[in-house]
């Protein structure tokens, strides 16, 4: 799996996140057909995985956790919608 930084393609989304939330850092990645939105504030990290074509796979979730939050010892919370097309990961700092 390859995590590709596509933040420049989503400048409106990034500006919206920075202006309407307490996030001070936003990145958007592509993991094949799955989009990954990484937001960081002074208190928490939020990661959303979204795939409109199919369910988000468990190995994709594990890959993202290992790549993006491996430096944090605290636990994380997963929120999964019924269709598994959107998964959110929340980490308190």
From TrEMBL:
It comes from the Bacteria. Gene3D superfamilies: Streptococcus thermophilus LMG 18311 protein like (3.40.1720.10). This is DUF1827 domain-containing protein. It comes from Lactobacillus ultunensis DSM 16047.
